[in-house]
Write a structure and sequence with these properties.
single chain, 404 residues, mainly alpha, 2 domains, 0% strand
């Protein structure tokens, strides 16, 4: 709760120190990181919890670390070769200075995902929580400090990178001193396990990449067609609602992943776990989401300044989609546990293309930010509604196509 609340509590200061354009650049940078972190590890870290043999889990952990390092080095090389083309694609001169920092952020995010999943395997939930608190505290202090010192363009991104680095360093220290893990570097086992869990890079990477890119589309589209200030409005709206979602969703999701994998291995009642998870998440979220739906414009105007009342109106448009997305987020680990990546790849491809079509219609036909975001949100409602039905259905099966 502390880790998720701190960044939002700091934002009233940030919105009064930094310009809308600077905050817009920050959300674009965050959006790119959320996408590139998926490529960093090729999603192999999700397989850490799946083997019955602890040695195999350790080997997958080592494999994931290597993949993160290699992929971020490749990314850095590509950016050096293609920087002119990237500048022309973004069409935001103020953002150009941040492009070469993307591989560093990707490396830190990728490392955190791998370390986080290993700590989940070890049930070191306390250390996972502390690492997120360390990130939030560092991020907030440096972002405010850099802004007050006059770094009004780069301060937000520098604070983010510092927070990401601190969280990784903390988990590395805990790995060394709080677990029994020892590097083995068994290359034969790495190759074997890479083949066993080949669906992770083939399908999971595609699924997560499309899902994250799909969710970040408004930030990129608004920045390109309406300017960085518009992406700042949307980014703030999305951040405020997503914070409680991440607070509960990420914690529940980690435990759901571990428990659902255990139930599949022991042939337990997976369907009951899915139903109970949905019911509890609904009870937790319904009142806060309704209150935000009613009062968002007033809250944003009062909390972040009158300049951000537009973010409040965008929040009202996004609430129904984000509520359903909140219900689905923890349960989405089910397609990893049940090896349903092929179907979900097709699903997310159609979802992604539908959202692009909706945003393009909003921009080119209606030429209105609110209509574009409303179409985007409506598509999200329809697809998330179907996802709830699908997860409830597949969890009933007794013939799971699980990893052997």
């Amino acid at each position: 709760m502390i880790a998720q609340a701190l960044p939002v509590l700091v934002f009233p200061i940030l919105t009064r120190v930094y310009s809308k354009e600077a905050i817009g650049f920050y959300f674009v940078f965050v959006g790119i990181g959320l996408i590139t972190q998926i490529i960093a590890s090729l999603q192999y870290e999700l397989a850490i919890l799946l083997p019955k043999d602890k040695k195999d889990s350790n080997t997958i952990f080592e494999l994931s670390l290597i993949i993160v390092l290699v992929n971020t080095l490749i990314m850095q090389g590509l950016i050096l070769l293609l920087d002119d083309w990237l500048y022309s694609l973004i069409k935001q001169e103020g953002f150009a200075q941040f492009i070469h920092l993307i591989p560093l952020s990707t490396f830190l995010l990728g490392m955190f995902r791998v370390l986080n999943n290993y700590m989940n395997l070890e049930r070191k939930y306390k250390h996972i929580a502390y690492s997120k608190i360390a990130k939030s505290v560092t991020l907030g202090i440096i972002q405010v400090g850099m802004g007050l010192l006059g770094f009004l363009t780069s301060g937000m991104v520098i604070g983010l990178l510092a927070g990401q680095a601190v969280s990784v360093i903390y988990l590395v220290i805990q790995l060394i001193y709080r677990t029994e893990f020892k590097f083995q570097w068994d290359w034969t086992s790495m190759i074997r396990l890479a083949k066993v869990y080949k669906d992770m890079p083939i399908f999971n990477t595609a699924i997560s990449f499309l899902s994250n890119l799909s969710n970040q589309l408004p930030v990129f589209f608004l920045s390109r067609y309406f300017g960085a200030a518009a992406s700042g409005d949307y980014g703030l709206a999305n951040r405020v609602v997503s914070t409680p979602m991440e607070l509960v969703g990420s914690s529940v999701g980690q435990v759901f992943f571990q428990e659902s994998a255990h139930l599949v291995k022991t042939k337990g009642d997976l369907h009951q776990l899915v139903k109970d998870t949905y019911k509890r998440l609904f009870k937790i979220a319904i009142i806060p989401f309704l209150l935000l739906l009613i009062s968002a414009p007033w809250l944003f105007s009062w909390f972040f300044s009158d300049e951000y009342i537009t973010s409040g109106y965008l929040t009202q448009i996004l609430i129904p989609w984000l509520f359903l997305n909140f219900l689905n987020s923890p349960v989405s680990y089910l397609f990893d546990v049940l090896n349903k990546q092929r179907f979900m790849t097709i699903f997310h491809t159609v979802y992604f293309l539908s959202r692009i079509a909706g945003l393009l219609a909003g921009f080119y036909i209606f030429q209105n930010v609110f209509i574009a975001v409303a179409i985007f949100s409506t598509i999200g409602i329809l697809f998330n509604g179907y996802t709830i039905y699908y997860y409830l259905k597949i969890s009933k099966s007794t013939d799971f196509q699980i990893y052997k």
